[in-house]
Amino acid sequence: MKRYNIINNKNKRELVLLKASPCIWGHCSFCDYIDDNSLDTKSNEILNREVLKNISGKYKSLEVINSGSCFELPKKTLDDIKSIVISKGINKLFFEGHWIYRFRLSEMENFFKVPIIFKCGIETFNNKFRNEFLNKGAVFSSPLEVSKYFKSICLMVGIKGQTTDMIKKDIEYLLKYFKYGCINIYTENSTPIKRDDKLIQWFRENYSFLDNMDNIEILWNNSDFGVGGN
Question: What is the superkingdom listed in this entry's lineage (predicted)?
Answer without folding.
Answer: Bacteria
